[in-house]
Prior knowledge:
Strand order of the largest sheet: 1-3-2
Protein name: Eukaryotic translation initiation factor 3 subunit D
InterPro entries: eIF3d
GO molecular function: RNA binding; translation initiation factor activity
Organism: Magallana gigas (Pacific oyster)
GO cellular component, one term: eukaryotic translation initiation factor 3 complex
Order of helices and strands: HHHHHHHEEEEEH
Radius of gyration: 40 Å
Amino acid sequence: MVESNSEDLIISASKKAFKHLPNLKKAVEELTVLKAVGPATASAVLTAGAPDQVAFMADESMQALPGLMPLQYTLGFYLQYMDQIKQILKILQKEDKTWTAHQVELTLWTFQFLKLNDPPLLIEAMEGSSKRKQENSNGDAKSGSEYKTVDCTGSAILIGHVEFHYGMAHFNPPQIQDNPSGWGPCAIPDQFKDLPYQPFSKGDRLGKVISYTRMVAGKYSSAFGGGASQYAYFHEEDENSFQLVDTSKIQKPQYQRGRRVFQQAPLKNRDASVQVKDSWEVVEEMDFPRLSKLSMPSVDDGEDL
C-alpha cells in the first residue's frame, strides 16, 4: 500500500478524511481513493486518529453484534456496524462520559474472542459478573452507578464496568396444516370439489420442458409411430366453444386406388353428431373410460312392444 501511493497523496487524502468527521461515509470515501485501501483499512486509519468517533471494522466485533452475518467488507455494511456501535456508546456515556467508540469495539472483540477460544474463561467472567452484582446489592462493593447493562439480545458478561447480554434471535415458524392420518392437505377448496378425475399413464409426456442448448428435434416422439389421442379436440374460431371428434384409426388396405402402395388419402375430421351449445346447462361431466365401465344392475332388459 505504501509503495503504490505517493506520500503527498496519502497526506492529502488523510487530511480530507479527518475534516469530514463525524460524517463517516464521506471520510471513508476520501481514504478509499488510495490504492489497496478499502473500508476496513480506512476504518483502521480513522480509528487511530479519532478513536472517540470511529471504531475499527474488526471481524470479531462485528460477529458479536446481532444482525450482521454474513460479514461484508463494504461501506454500507460498515455504516450498519457503526450505527450499532453508536447506540451502545450513547447508553454507556449516560453513566460514564469517558467511553469511546473504539473502547466499545474492543469490549465486543474481547467477548467474541473468549466465546470462540476460551469458553471456560468466559463462563468464569459471567459468574464473576453475578457475584459482583450481588455484592453491590449488599453494599459491600462499588456503587451501582459504576455498572451498566447493555441489551443486545440474552447471556451476560461483565468486562470492565459493562455487562453485555446476548442470545438467540427470535424466529416465528409459519403456520402449516397437520394431517396425522395421511399426507397432503387436510381440506379441499370449494372450487376444486366434484372435479372429474383424469387418469394418466406412464407413457403420457406431461410437464416436459424445452431446451435451447442442443438439438432435441424428435427427442420425445414415439418410437411406434404417432397416433391421434382419444382426448383430442379441435378449436374453432370461437374460443368459447369446442367439439369432440372421432380420432380412432381407420383400417385401410395396403393397396389403394391405382394399385399403389401407401397412397392413403388424408384423414377427414368428422364433426360430432351432436353440437354442444352455450345455452346448455352442465349437470355432470364424465370422461369416456368411466362411461364405458358403468353398469346398471337394477335396470331390466328391454322388451319389444
